[in-house]
Amino acid sequence: MDLTHEPQIIDELFRKVRSEEILEDLKELGVDVREQTFKNPSPEEALGLYGLAIQVVFGKTRADIRPEDVYSQIHVYSSAVEGLEIKSENLEFLRRGIGNLRFWRYCQRLHDVLGLPEIERYELFNPTPESFNRFTSAFVVYLRFREALKNLFEDTVTRLNFCAEQEAQLEENIRQVEGEYNNFKRLKDEYALDLETSVNDREHLEQLLLQAKSVFNEHKEEKAKIDAEIERTKIAINDVQLNRTKVRHINENLSEQIVDDPEVIYNQKNELEAHKATQTTTLKCLIERLEAVKQRLSRLEGCHDFLIALKEKLTQHLEEVLRPLVENVSAAKTIKTRNETLREQIKYQKNKREDAQKSLVLARQDHEEKLRLAEQNAENKLKLARKFADETHEQVQQIQRHISQENKKIELIQQEYTRREDTMTNTYRTLQGNLKKVSDAAKAYSQSMDDIMKELHNTVAETK
């Protein structure tokens, strides 16, 4: 298979799932896997890793996966079916069978999530290095993909949590302000009638005060006129009394004088009596006017006292009613301003939250689109990888068949070698026996030659 035009895809799929990196990623989960396991995985190690993957991916516990191992008991119930009875010697087999079936179903779901083909029960309990490596690689890729998604949305989730906290704080502030507002509203409703009555009384008192001021000003002017007239009357009375005194003195002087002409005296007397009557009439008029002025003055003094009392009552009303009313109105205005400010802040925070939610929605849509594209890309890559794996598997099978053929040839060669080795061994043994015979013959020949030489030597010696 020629994959030179797609080296990046293959490298991206398999570059980060080497056995060393798988060991490092599993160590981060607290799982220590031996390197020998990848070459010769045992059923216990494979099942343990499958159980860990089920707990991590589905959030299950050991009690969910194999409750019979955790609680170590199965309740025995009497069967209602005649002839069907579960005996105690079958409980262990039943417990293992149910647990293995449940575990196999979890493993099938796990393979579906990890994008692996379905796994058979025989393959689950009899793992091969190929299936074990394929499963661990897919599990590590899933963990990295999930961690990448978590890091991708971590900032957005943090912002969303911050916005939620701000919203909760704002809602708490709104509840407090609404409580204060309702309290002031309740107080306003309670004092509304008193306030309306106080306002009406104030308006009535203001009208009375204006009328009293007008009357007071009129009477003040009239009092000034009366005071001036009293002064003039006093002056006139003084003048009349002075004239009467003068007349009395004149009368006394005249009475002492000698009367020469009675008619003149009678005329003077009549004139004086007429003048006296005129002065008496004028004095009576002035006295009557004085009494009237005194009555008017007493009435003015009563008005003055009434105005002073009215002023005191208005001052007391101002201190007791109007000033707290103004303060309450000012406090109400302050609270109203504060409410408007809080409403603006709430509106701003809501707009900010809506913008954040819109940004979150856009970011989520963007992330979903990227995720969809990434899933499509990953699916395409996975298809290519599966295709590559299938073709590689075919090549491996071809290589395995070739290896089998070579192994057969090697076996034939070994058999031929063994046969030849046996032949050579037999030949060697035969040669060794022949060599021994030759050696024995040579030794015998040497011994014979020695004997012959000795005899020859002896013969020569005897001849000499």
TrEMBL record:
**Residue span(s) of domain Kinetochore protein Nuf2 N-terminal:** 14-159
Keywords, A to Z?
Cell cycle, Cell division, Centromere, Chromosome, Coiled coil, Mitosis
Q: Which InterPro entries match?
A: Kinetochore_Nuf2_N (IPR005549), Nuf2_N_sf (IPR038275)
Q: Which Pfam families match?
A: Nuf2
Gene3D superfamilies of this UniProt entry?
A: Ncd80 complex, Nuf2 subunit
Its localization reads: Chromosome, Centromere
Q: What is this protein called?
A: Kinetochore protein Nuf2 N-terminal domain-containing protein
* Organism, scientific name: Babesia divergens
